[in-house]
User: Fold this.
Amino acid sequence: MSKARLLAPWVDDGSDRSAIYHVVSRIVGRDFLLDAQCKEQFVRYMRMYEAFCGVRVLTYCIMTNHFHILVEIPPKCDRHLSDEALIERLKVLYSKEYVDQVRLHLELLAKAIHPEGRAAHAELRERYTRRMWDLGLFMKTLKQRFSTWYNKKHGRRGTLWEARYKSVLVENGYAARTMAAYIELNPVRAGMVEDPKAYRWCGYAEAVAGGQLARNGLMRILSELDSDTAVDGWSGARDITKYDWRAVAQRYRLILFEDGASYDGRAEIAQQQRRGFSEAQWKKEQEREGKLSIAEIARCQSRYFVEGAVLGSREWVNEVIEGIKGDFLSESRKTLSSKMRGSLDGCGLWSMRKLE
Assistant:
């Protein structure tokens, strides 16, 4: 069972909060199988099932042997659809003829007077809605659909993915912004591009190119993801309509350049370089009198971002752990959140797992 499913009780116990997950999955054998056409097709399927499942992809990056997606699952109070809205969702996956048949059937059952007819109406809706608002089913459907397409295209059989997927529950705001930057910088760290906007298959590049869904995702991330107002029918979200994309784009780019520096100022490795932005660019962004920046968090052991299970402030991580103790953790567990180590020490983020 994936960690996303393990944490479901905590996510579902409140009616007014959504949940953000960083999910990662790798190609079997970690072979570099995903070329440009494959990445395009994966993004196409991702957007398709995003629309059908009612989840929100905040950002993503499709690499040649793995992918990252930062996805938001709506709270229970927002998981409701009218028959008309359900039909619109069905249009994403099914033919016009099939959707017309479902529409007609729903209309007939909705007019039923007897309890049996109303029950049949609810059962027909449940046939489709049970596949929505669920991270596990979103990922399963996406990966299976892409695997079928890939195997048919390349005349192969068998599994395409190394395992199901890994997931980390991420706190709104600071942790979510840090995770987004980590995801976007993958192709820069891999030496594939010098600037993330040049990598076609990531959320930032899609947003720069004018993709509205990608822009909405980044504005959602930088809106602090507060819980004061509702937007797009989702509770627990700040109204992103008041944000200007140009201002958000400038701010987000600064974050990426800070996080993507190739220079690490720690004395013991000051001469070491890694792929990323230049030392001059990095130092320019550090003129903040020693205040902690997101860059200091992104220069980290990536295991926390894919194996930490839960990532956020100490108080928030403890709240999540308390919520799942007894179901998936021992009630006798004395230690709760674990302070991140190495370059993450002092960054203000904590993890459920203590990683060495």
The beta strands are 19-26, 56-62, 66-73, 166-170, 310-312, 338-339, 350-351.
